[in-house]
Design goal:
Creatine Amidinohydrolase, Chain A, domain 1, Creatine Amidinohydrolase, 14 helices, 448 residues, six-stranded mixed β-sheet
C-alpha cells in the first residue's frame, strides 16, 4: 500500500511540450513521407510489421546501451525499446491502417528508468495518428492478419552479414509464421533499402552535423597526441567531444592504433603506449540523430612525419584526392575500386614494394597490391555506418559513401588510411573537407 501511495503522489510524469531527447529529431513529416513511400510499393491486401531491437543484458538488471533498429527508425523515428510499427493500408478499419505500439510509461517504470514516451510524445515524433500500448498489440495484430493476404517482414540483408543470434526480428518472424502459417510472407528489404539508400535533405543535415562533431573529435585528438601517452587517452578525448556536442554516441568503436597496430584494420583495443616515431591511425566518427559520420586520419605521434612515412602518406593522399571527384551519379563501388586498384599499383611500385614485372606476372586471384591494400575503397553510410546498398548499386544523387584508400606495410610498421564521407552529386560534396589532411597542416596543428 505504501508503495502505491508513493507512486501516486510523487511519480506523476511532468507534462512535456516535446519529448526529451539528446539530439534534434527529424520532423514527423519526414517519417510520414517515408511510410507513404513504402506503402506505395506494397502489394494490395498486405501488412508490414517492424519491431525494435532487443535490449541486451549486461549483468543483473543492467543492459548494454540500446540502439534502435534502423528500419524502424527510418519509418517512425521512435528511439525507444519495445516498439513496433504496423502498416496495413487496405484494412477496412481506418484506425488499423497505421498503428504504432510503445511500452506503457507506467509510474513504476518512470521511478526506475526516468522518462518514457507517452502516446502524445510518440505521435509528435512519428506522425502516426494511432498510438497504442504494447498490451493491445496481439488483439490488433489478429484483427489485421485476418484481413490480409501478404505480410512484409524485415531481417537484415547483407552478403557480409552473418546472423548468429536469434534477434527479435527473427524470433518475431518465426512466431508469426507459426501462428499464421497460411499467409504469403515477403521481404521488406527490397522495398525499404533503395529508399533508405538515397538521403533526403533532413538526413543530409543530420549527417553534416555528425561530421561536424567528428571534425571536433579530430581537432581535440591532435592537441592531445604525444609520445608516452596511451591510445585510450586519445579515445577519451574524442569521447568527450561526442558527449559534449550532443551526439548519440560513437558511430562505431573507434580505432586508435599506433605503430605496428596501424596495420590491423579493425584494431579496437586501444591499449598501447604511443612511442616517438610511431604513426597513429585513427578511424572514428560521431553518430548524431542516429546518423553516422566516418573519418580516418593518420598522424605522426611526435608531430613530424619521417621521410618514409611522408612518402607513404602522400601516396595515399594523392589517390584520396583523385577519387573523391569520382563519386558522381552512374558510378558504382566496383568502378571506384577498379580505379583505386590501378592507382595502388602505380604508387606501390614507386614506394619500391614491388615492380611492374611482378604485376605482369601476378596471380589474378591475388594481385600484388592486396598485400598492402586489403579492403575496398568505399561503403554506403547513413543510419548505419555500413549502410544498406551493394557494390554494384549505381550511385544516385543523395547517396553518401566513404572514400578511404590506405596502404599498410606490416614489415615496416607503417599503416596509413585517409577517409571522408562524400555526397554523390554532379560535383561531389566532401562532408569533412574542413578536417586537416595535408602533411603541412597536420604538422602545424600538432606544433600549436
Amino acid at each position: 500500500m505504501l508503495k502505491q501511495i508513493f507512486i501516486r503522489k510523487f511519480c506523476v510524469p511532468l507534462p512535456l511540450k516535446f519529448p526529451i531527447m539528446r539530439y534534434q529529431p527529424l520532423s514527423a513529416e519526414f517519417y510520414t513521407h517515408n511510410r507513404r513511400n513504402v506503402v506505395g510499393e506494397m502489394a494490395e491486401n498486405s501488412v508490414a510489421l517492424l519491431v525494435s531491437h532487443d535490449e541486451y543484458p549486461r549483468c543483473g538488471d543492467t543492459t548494454h546501451p540500446f540502439r534502435q533498429n534502423s528500419e524502424l527508425l527510418y519509418l517512425c523515428g521512435i528511439d525507444q525499446e519495445e516498439t513496433s510499427l504496423l502498416l496495413a493500408p487496405w484494412h477496412p478499419n481506418p484506425d488499423y491502417r497505421e498503428v504504432l505500439f510503445i511500452k506503457n510509461p507506467s509510474p513504476e517504470k518512470i521511478v526506475w528508468f526516468g522518462h518514457r514516451l507517452s502516446k502524445e510524445d510518440a505521435k509528435k515524433l512519428s506522425g502516426v495518428r494511432n498510438v497504442m500500448f504494447n498490451e493491445e498489440f496481439e488483439s490488433v495484430l489478429n484483427a489485421v492478419m485476418v484481413q490480409s493476404e501478404h505480410v512484409y517482414l524485415h531481417i537484415p540483408e547483407d552478403p557480409r552479414f552473418r546472423q548468429e543470434l536469434p534477434t527479435r526480428e527473427i524470433r518475431f518472424a518465426k512466431q508469426l509464421k507459426e501462428n499464421y502459417p497460411l499467409h504469403d510472407y515477403r521481404r521488406l528489404a527490397p522495398i525499404l533499402y533503395p529508399l533508405r539508400n538515397v538521403k533526403q535533405p533532413e538526413e543530409l543535415a543530420a549527417m553534416k552535423k555528425a561530421c561536424e562533431i567528428t571534425s571536433k573529435m579530430f581537432a581535440r585528438a591532435l592537441s592531445a597526441i604525444a609520445p608516452g601517452k596511451y591510445e585510450y587517452e586519445i579515445e577519451a578525448e574524442m569521447t568527450y567531444e561526442v558527449i559534449r556536442n550532443g551526439a548519440t554516441t560513437h558511430s562505431f568503436a573507434p580505432i586508435i592504433a599506433a605503430g605496428p597496430d596501424t596495420c590491423i584494420l579493425h584494431y579496437i583495443k586501444n591499449d598501447k603506449q604511443m612511442r616517438d616515431g610511431d604513426l597513429l591511425l585513427m578511424d572514428f566518427g560521431a553518430e548524431y540523430a542516429n546518423y553516422a559520420g566516418d573519418c580516418s586520419r593518420t598522424v605522426p605521434v611526435n608531430g613530424k612525419f619521417t621521410p618514409r612515412q611522408k612518402a607513404v602518406y602522400e601516396a595515399v593522399l594523392s589517390i584520396y584526392k583523385e577519387t573523391i571527384p569520382l563519386f558522381k551519379p552512374g558510378m558504382t563501388i566496383h568502378k571506384i575500386n577498379d580505379y583505386v586498384f590501378k592507382r595502388m599499383d602505380e604508387e606501390l611500385i614507386k614506394l619500391g614494394l614491388y615492380t611492374q614485372k611482378d604485376v605482369d606476372n601476378q596471380d589474378p586471384a591475388m594481385p600484388c597490391f592486396k598485400k598492402y591494400y586489403m579492403h575496398n575503397t568505399s561503403h554506403f553510410i547513413g543510419l548505419d555506418v555500413h549502410d544498406v546498398g551493394q557494390r554494384d548499386w549505381v550511385f544516385q544523387p543523395g547517396n553518401v559513401l566513404s572514400c578511404e584508400p590506405g596502404i599498410y606495410i606490416a614489415e615496416e610498421g607503417i599503416g596509413v588510411r585517409i577517409e571522408t564521407d562524400v555526397v554523390v552529386a554532379d560535383t561531389p560534396i566532401d562532408l569533412m573537407a574542413d578536417v586537416p589532411v595535408e602533411v603541412e597542416e597536420i604538422e602545424a596543428r600538432m606544433r600549436d
